[in-house]
Amino acid sequence: MRNKITTQYVSGFKKAYIDNGAREIWEHFETIKHGSTKEDMKKLRWMKKSQIILTL
């Protein structure tokens, strides 16, 4: 994260989750926060194409 405020904001959330016994939830978030996989993007493209065909 480039922005100091954003970094502090996320650090505060992490501390709040851990301090309240939700470390597992935070760790799950950490594993998925970086975005979609290539396979997820392929599925999304397919879904968008299917929706376009259905609307025609």
List the helices and strands and how they pair.
Blueprint: H1 4-19, H2 23-32, H3 38-55
Helix pairs in contact: 1-2
Give the low-pLDDT segments: none
Shape: elongated
Largest sheet, described in full?
A: none
Query: How many strand units?
Result: 0
Share of helix, binned: over 70%
What is the N-to-C order of secondary-structure elements (H for helix, E for strand)? HHH
Annotation field: number of helices: 3
Structural class: mainly alpha
**Radius of gyration, taken over Cα atoms and rounded to an integer in Å:** 18 Å
User: What distance lies between the first and last C-alpha atoms, to the nearest angstrom?
Assistant: 42 Å
Task: Kindly report the average pLDDT value.
Answer: 77
> Proportion of β residues?
under 5%
Please indicate the count of domains: 1
Structure commentary:
The chain has helices spanning 4-19, 23-32, 38-55. By secondary structure, it is mainly alpha-helical. The longest helix has 18 residues, at 38-55. The model has no long low-confidence stretch (mean pLDDT 77).
Q: What's the gist of this structure?
A:
With 56 residues, the protein is mainly alpha-helical. It has helices at residues 4-19, 23-32, 38-55.
Defining traits:
56 residues; 3 helices; 79% helix
